[in-house]
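Worked example 4.2. Below are the chains of a multi-component assembly; read each line carefully before continuing.
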Amino acid sequence: MNVRNYCKLEIMSLPENVSFARACVGAFASQLGCTLEEIDEIKLVVSEAVSNSIIHAYENRGTELITIVVSLLDGRTLEIIVEDYGKGIEDVARVLQPSYSSEPSRMGLGFSFMKSFMDELEVISRPGEGTSVQMRRSFVSKDNEAYA
Amino acid sequence: MELELKQVRNTLIVRIEGELDMLAADQIREDIDKKIDNSEIKNLILNLEKVTFIDSSGLGMIIGRYKKLKGKNGRMFIAGARPQVEKILYFSGINKLISVYRNEQDIINLQGR
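Applying the procedure described above to all two chains together yields the following structure tokens:
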């Protein structure tokens, strides 16, 4: 797919930066002509992925880095990649199971939201090296609907 | 995030304004637990009228307070969630454990019966 637009954001692994990351990606997504409800869903999945990096990958160390790359592919598909360089996930299939949680206070809903609100979700992880969460969702923009 | 805590007899009313993510959840958890642990509070009304965003960290904070109050034979209620927040509450299934009402007054009327 052709990349029509692209944005790369690098943040420190601080809770204060979660809202900044989701607001940036939400603003980027708005060029797709999606609804406010869809933008809220995009912000939610970014919040979940970045929070996972802070809590699980870095175990709340605020001194590490998280990279968020968001791309607009072919004018109607949004790709979001959230990467950390933390401890990684031993068993990716297990953490993708519904309601799996190593941290009971977060209910294990993070990946459930990502799966539900995105069309595609891929988690690539190497223990000791880090995790890359790659998500895609296609939108039918209001402009496209008018010509459909 | 703004937080207002008000105690009426053994009920704590918590009004939250802003985004309920991991940063806000930690602060709210701490403030509510301090109140619950140091008083006769048994019931909690969580007013989400002015909450514009919630994620699984926020949901985790809510479910944690629910379990804590259940341990004291107390009850918890949610009031006034906006549609975008209500959608996430229902998606998570929290509404099966904690009743969600339109506003604080509906809960107070119910308790008065």
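Take a moment to check your reading of the output against the notes. Residues 36-57 of chain A form the longest helix (22 residues). Residues 11 and 66 of chain A are 5 Å apart (CA to CA).
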